[in-house]
Design goal:
This protein has two helices and six strands. By secondary structure, the protein is of the alpha+beta class. The protein starts with a helix and ends with a strand.
């Protein structure tokens, strides 16, 4: 493989995850709202953590920050475990009726900025 072909292949490999990422432009940053209650499902994995909570009779999928950011800012996986009570403030998705991007979360007695 030539150096140019190798460089092109490397560029494709690097760009592919970025292209697959949904980005934050699919959330309405003019309509912040909050959900407070018990965590029904929790994931602390990459590329983002996720929660499922119920709000006004509807199950909401909540997109959190990357695990490295959450950990660095003091939000442990145990703080958002299933059954824990949390408050999440964020923005609704413009694509999915019951999805939100979390801006901050209050869990375990502390508020953590996720962005």
């Amino acid at each position: 493989m030539t150096p140019i072909a190798r460089a092109a292949a490397l560029l494709v490999l690097i760009a592919t995850p970025a292209a697959a990422h949904h980005g934050w432009s699919s959330y309405d940053s003019t309509k912040m709202f909050a959900i407070e209650g018990a965590v029904l499902e929790s994931s602390y994995g990459n590329p983002h953590g996720h929660l499922v909570m119920e709000h006004e009779g509807k199950r909401w999928e909540i997109v959190l920050g990357p695990p490295s950011r959450m950990s660095t800012r003091g939000l442990a996986e145990a703080d958002i475990a299933t059954g824990k009570t949390v408050k999440v403030e964020g923005y609704p998705s413009t694509r999915a009726a019951s999805e939100m991007r979390a801006e901050r979360i209050t869990a375990g007695g502390k508020t953590v900025e996720l962005r």
